[in-house]
């Protein structure tokens, strides 16, 4: 079992968008480390960003001129360091407060699975039975039990 280092940046963006966000980032970190303990991941940064910033990243790395909910990057090919960028504003506009907390957790899992090499062809809504989404939702249930 390896000890994954997880750092969360710009937490204030989450509070600005949804002040009732009730999950402690310490609980998120503990749950994340438990769920992904048997992976080669060593250091993950979760970075909350504005719509404008994630749109710039999306344009630069995916040639898509629009904001998105999550982008993930391997900083080193051996997965020693990776980053997940999440846009709380985009999430809130898509889900409002109804499932905002759950969606933030889902995006952390989703971004991590991409770093681990998983991919999908469609969206979760269009193709929920794709292998990556099935695993994502299984891990999300574990994540929620540990955090909520």
Automatic annotation (TrEMBL):
- Report the cofactor remark: Binds 1 zinc ion.
Amino-acid positions noted as binding Zn(2+) in the UniProt annotation, renumbered to this chain: 110, 114, 120
Any one Pfam family match given in the protein's UniProt record, by short name? YbeY
Q: Which gene encodes it?
A: ybeY
Its job = Single strand-specific metallo-endoribonuclease involved in late-stage 70S ribosome quality control and in maturation of the 3' terminus of the 16S rRNA.
Q: Give the location in the cell.
A: Cytoplasm
Residues in a coiled coil are none
The entry lists its GO molecular-function terms as: metalloendopeptidase activity; RNA endonuclease activity; zinc ion binding
Return the EC number: 3.1.-.-
**Signal sequence residues:** none
Name the InterPro entries for this protein.
MetalPrtase_cat_dom_sf_prd, YbeY, YbeY_CS
- Tell me the domain of life: Bacteria
Which family, according to the similarity comment? Belongs to the endoribonuclease YbeY family.
Question: Which cofactors?
Answer: Zn(2+)
Keywords linked to the UniProt accession: Cytoplasm, Endonuclease, Hydrolase, Metal-binding, Nuclease, Ribosome biogenesis, rRNA processing, Zinc
Report the record's Gene Ontology biological process terms. Answer: rRNA processing
Primary location class: cytoplasm
User: What is the name attached to this protein's record?
Assistant: Endoribonuclease YbeY
GO cellular component entries: cytoplasm
Decide whether keyword Transport is in the record.
Answer: no
